[in-house]
Design brief:
Shape: globular
Distance between the termini: 42 Å
Strand content: 35-45%
Number of helices: 1
Mean pLDDT: 85
Helix content: under 10%
Largest sheet: 4 strands, antiparallel
Number of strands: 8
Length: about 140
């Protein structure tokens, strides 16, 4: 028994998917992390030291210079009509677009049968975010 590991991830919002990791005596395990700002980064977790090493990362196409650092992502809990707290992930530009601070918002929801949407990278959201939208 090697114990449990708490790996430092690039963001507190996202999902982890284990790699194949077929060798039961391996010294490291591989996993992929994705988030609304991270299209996919593959890491190795060294089981003896607990150190996490980036293996490869998918990069954004940033023709306009607005990459992941231009946006912020946060996860909060919002009370539904029945009082149940529902996870809400907000992705928005960091820069001010002027005006009164209000912005258009695309709300994408699903929550039934005990499941909810996983916060994941969606390339179609980049067009809206770069125009000042909240997703």
């Amino acid at each position: 028994n090697r114990g449990a590991f708490l790996a430092e991830l690039p963001s507190s919002v996202g999902s982890v998917e284990p790699g194949v990791n077929a060798e039961p005596t391996a010294e490291a395990v591989r996993f992929t992390f994705r988030s609304p700002l991270e299209p996919g980064a593959t890491y190795n977790l060294d089981l003896s030291s607990g150190r996490v090493e980036l293996i490869r990362r998918r990069e954004w196409q940033t023709g306009d210079g607005l990459g992941p650092d231009a946006f912020q992502c946060e996860r909060t809990l919002y009370p539904a009509q029945d009082g149940e707290l529902v996870p809400l992930t907000l992705l928005r530009p960091k820069r001010d677009f002027g005006g009164d601070g209000s912005r258009p918002c695309l709300l994408n929801v699903y929550g039934a049968y005990g499941t909810c949407l996983v916060p994941d990278f969606r390339p179609e959201h980049l067009v809206l975010l770069r125009r000042g939208w909240v997703v």
